[in-house]
Write a structure and sequence with these properties.
This protein is 33% helix and 19% strand. By secondary structure, it is an alpha+beta fold. The protein starts with a helix and ends in a 6-residue tail after the last helix.
Length: 426
Amino acid sequence: MKIRHWISLICLPWMLAACSDNDNESPELTPEEQDYTFSVAQLTIETKDHAPILGKEKKHYVDFTLTVESDHPEWNYEGTGRIRGRGNSTWLWYPKKPYRMKLDEKASILGLDEEKDWVLLANYRDPTHLMNTFTFAAGQELGLPYTNHSRFVEVTLNGEYIGLYLLTEQVEQGESRVNVAEEGGILLSLDKDDGPELAPDEEDNFWSGVYRMPVCVKHPEDQTPDQLNAIKKEFALLEQAIKDNDYEAVAQLMDIPSFIDYLMLQELVYNVEVDAPRSIYMHKDKGGKWFMGPLWDFDAGFDFDWGTMYTGHNYFSSHRELVLGTDPANRIGGYQVPRFFIDLFKNKRFVSEYKERWLEVREMVMPVFWETTAMYAEGAAEAMERNASCWPIDKDYATEIERMKDWLLKRRNHLDEVIANYPAGK
């Protein structure tokens, strides 16, 4: 489906500004190529001898050939590599499977920076296909470092059409990914599934020293015990500064604006996985400050009904539920999120900066974040229809997209009141 040019002309300046602010820039795209980012490419995957993809562990990789056909011929691609499953609940619970691809040689896929590792998100639980896309678009506009990009693709696996997928970057250290130094850079995941409680046999995780959060070290890989202990101590310094309500000390250790924007997006999309936590990334370059991100995994947001988590696709019932609550510092009206994320709300300066920033962010929610997302929706509409025939659920994607839009508008307006009434702090 072609994108209406009047929408492209309205949104293009915002999108170009987002790209210029994003530390994970893709190659500079021409205006024509910008239009192609909203169209759906065709991915053909042929595994060696048509071998099935049986699991999500490294041992389950199978050799494959990948062919990409785009409306933009310069983005066509053919190469080889390995493919396996990926994800936790998305791999275990749902019939439509997500995948991780590792190419034999670095390549630019659909205008994105060259790299070997790519992800195909199935979005089976998400009846709109847009929850990750919306949040990525918001993160790019806000300038959160290394925010992922969205490319919709229809996938054929060993001759069988398997539906509409979101192709995006693997979250990892690298020049075209999370560009922290090979030596001295750090990439962490605060994630219950990868932490010491649920993955006790792994040697790359630990309980944080102050707030006892589950931490998994994604970079450096295969760290020595000395490296792991050094990372523990370095992270504990940040935790202690937050716990001590020492704004100046925190500001020396962490980029507070990125922390504010990151928390706002989690609240805006009602991502309750901050509570566990799960899929919360942080990074730090050698000699630099901690930054939040990259953003990841938002199909448990948007008021997802956890009572139907194994089979349901139910979202958007209430726009009033909160993650951080009406009084974050005292855990009132929200989830019992780790105090790492909320103790700074005791600080008068932090609360003031948070409120000021919300007044800027709220003006972008519908005319910028949503309009960009709507362009992806329009470009993928015909593919969504085919996906619905392949993976029928009890929801109509077009109806759910309208519900998502209405929910976001109501939630933005609700957060106006909630954030304005946060206690001022001391």
